[in-house]
Fold these 2 entries.
Entry 1:
Amino acid sequence: MRISKTLLALGLGAALAATSFAQAEDKVVIGFSQIGAESEWRTANTNDVKKAAEELGIELKFSDAQQKQENQIKAIRTFIAQKVDLIGFVPVVETGWDNILREAKRAKIPVMIMDRDLKVSDDSLYVAKIGTDSYAEGRKMFEWMDNYVTQTDRKARNGGDKLNIVILEGTVGASAAVGRTNGFNEALAASPNKDRYNILAAQTGDFTRAKGQQVMESFLKSYRDDIDILISQNDDMALGAIQAIEAAGLKPAQDIIIIGADAVKGMFQAMIDGKANATIECNPLQGKIFFETALKVLKGEPVQKVVYVDEGVFSADQAAEVFPTRKY
Ligand code: GZL
């Protein structure tokens, strides 16, 4: 039977389209909205997300929100319009997500959360969260500090009966900051040693090195020889604060105890250099478990609603030995 050239062309066209559709069909497409690039930790998190997606053969549409929630909302709306298979994002702040997540739900696109936490009126607006337990990290910051003060029989530099603490907080409204603040404060309030301490000042350094240095400079201007301990809610702000402490003629980790969070390489180096005392790990390497969970979601397999990645605590006396094993 003779097939007309037109029919043949149509048939080939359809076959090609089907093939390309089939290829597209094979590749899972995930839209991912990342907060930005505010810290060493975030950069490690982004690199891990991209590496894991590539290793799992996922087509990743990646968006950097430059710390702005409105940019994340715009990116999620774009992913919906592009009809991606799944949407993932790190919520820069805890609240303000209900509407956009309802739009995703109406479009029947599952949403997963990475790293930070969010507050929504209906937990069915996201299918799973892979993250870090900021509240536990805050408690560990207090516990390490209190143990160290006990072991070294630390006295207030100004001769007073309380050790004065200043706190560099993370981004206002971010679950990582809220969790670490609540964890630290609740551990302090419940401690039999609570009367040893006084929180002299707490201010956001927005998780950045530059802001951490700037806020520490202002703390030193106001309280120089009254400050005994710096609690920094991430290592980047602690590294900035160390510069401010040295510029003020004080010895970081000696005159002022310095405890950070994240356990990034820069903080290990500071501990090796004798300029920081400890850091509470917050593991950014969440990509593999995140995308493996996403693939299960897309296959309709059951997944855990919340999974926390493993996190440790590192002090200066083990920094040199551990440093070579650090991946970020
Ligand atoms: C914590 C993460 C925080 C890090 C900061 O889970 O969201 O954001 O502690 C980063 O370094 O900026």
Note: The pocket of beta-D-galactofuranose is lined by residues 38-39, 41-42, 115-116, 132, 176, 207, 234, 236, 261-262, 282 (CB under 6 Å).
Entry 2:
Amino acid sequence: MPFSSFALTEPLLRAVSHYPEPTRVQLESIPVILAGGDLLATAQTGSGKTTAFVLPLLQRWASASEKLKRNRPLNILILVPTRELAAQIRTVVQECAAHLDERPKVVSAVGGVSINPQMMALRGGADFVVATPGRLLDLVKRNALSLSGVSSLVLDEADRLLDLGFSEELNCIFDLLPARRQNLLFSATFPKKVEALALKSLYDPNRVRIEEEPKSAPDIRQQVIRVDTEKRTPLLRHLIEEEDWKRVLVFVASQYTADHVVMKLRRNGIRAGAFHGDLSQGARSEALEDFKNSHFKVMVATDLAARGLDIVELPVVVNYDLPRSADDYTHRIGRTGRAGEHGVAVSFVTAESESHFRLIEKRNACRLTREEIEGFKPTETPHAPLASAGTGGIKGRRKSKKDKLREAAARKLKE
Ligand code: AMP
């Protein structure tokens, strides 16, 4: 079914004419949203979900009354967990609206940067606001915008919004929104807390589940390499050179490790940059741009980069440190194999992190073959005392509650 079979206007169809056909989430969501219905969609990032809600919302906005457009009461509110996702969605809205006679005013309202430019941008109203919940509430408190005119609300990456502890802010925002509105909730995973949020915020939603469609599963080869903890950086270097990786996203457990691995790679002449929460928003955007423009070929990141980031042509993701949860694993490896491309996800598993990786496999109902690379064969045994367990434990740091729970679960599995 082509895009032209949707009741979308010609300027909107033109904006997506470079895509051969709609993705599944687009096929199923666009008619529902155009008809004004509520939607609950389980779809991974990379499935085309942003365009799936942006196109029909633009169409609804474009056909709204002239008076509404003139007054610019905030019409469409898109809530996201991170600044990076907000920036990406804003870009998609602008790209999809590029051929409309009248373009909507799209404002990004995110934390971590000065509030003043956002207050200025909101003067005279806005049609679309893409926001993180905390900053949105700050702006409301300062009377920079009102939510009483919102006709459609999007909760994007709802699982991540809740993981990041935004549930209280979301409740405050719901109280400020008009009771009659369209609600669209997108989430990569659907744990109990997302179900509760859906019950609270959606009215008789249409359900779209994309992850169950085998065809839409991204083409990602998962590779697991056994290696000693201390050999991970040399192995990473070896693979980058040997496999001739052009662009690789490396996940580590801490900001310290990110900076440390970057320093080691640079010392060996490999162009690398770090991406983590300790960097200013400007430095993060710059790092992302440098990576996308191939100014450096390796980006070493914390889980901040695990969700929402859309980097086309990212052939390889490496789990230098394992993620804490199976969900995080799914999100991390989902950075590659996007938009129908082939991707490789490599996980370094040390003697200490083996049991944790088995838990991830169990959760994901899979068992992957362990490989060893000549020259990097592991010598550690699971009981050897290690400086770092490779799953986030950093020498000298106190174990977090999550670390302790994970270790208890790993012990249980061994029994
Ligand atoms: P998402 O993060 O789910 O919004 O997916 C975004 C990625 O999907 C971007 O790389 C888009 O270029 C790509 N995309 C969106 N719509 C389509 C489509 N109909 N066909 C192919 N790729 C698409």
Note: Residues 3-209 form a domain with the Rossmann fold fold (CATH 3.40.50.300).
